[in-house]
Design goal:
The protein has about 120 residues and is α+β, with helices and mostly antiparallel strands. It contains 2 helices and 7 strands; from the N terminus they run αβββββββα. Helices cover about 20% and strands about 45% of the residues. Strands 4-6-7-5 form a 4-stranded mixed β-sheet, covered by helices on one side. A 3-stranded antiparallel β-sheet has the order 1-2-3, with helices on one face. The relative contact order is 0.20.
């Protein structure tokens, strides 16, 4: 039962490409889904194994390093980040978001294609 619940919680984590930009849904680390508009995306690339540090960097990978994405933003986006215990929320102005995905190459190519369509 424990493993089924753990897998179910992982299945609720999404990185979705929508016409307006990208949406990150992660109930394990975020209080609410986050929409990043297409115009706010400065770059989407593979994340380095050692995450960058500093103000504005938000790591949503929960320890995962392989197949990660680095989403750099041209303007900060407000995130409601859950803190342990999950009853507290911290509002962060994110300029870089690190996300673990299963198919990072496809996500990068699709976002770049969508950005070309908006120009």
């Amino acid at each position: 039962a424990y493993f089924v619940r753990a897998l179910h919680v992982l299945s609720l984590r999404w990185f979705v490409i929508v016409p307006a930009g990208v949406v990150t849904v992660d109930p394990m680390t975020l209080a609410d889904p986050v929409l990043v508009l297409r115009e706010q995306i400065a770059d989407l690339s593979r994340a380095p194994i050692r995450p960058p540090t500093g103000a504005g960097v938000v790591d949503l990978r929960l320890g995962a390093t392989a197949r990660s994405l680095r989403l750099d933003l041209s303007t900060p986006v407000k995130l409601a980040r859950l803190r342990r215990p999950a009853t507290t929320v911290e509002i962060i102005d994110a300029t870089t978001i690190l996300i673990a995905t299963t198919r990072p190459g496809d996500a990068i190519e699709t976002v770049r294609h969508h950005r070309r369509l908006s120009v």
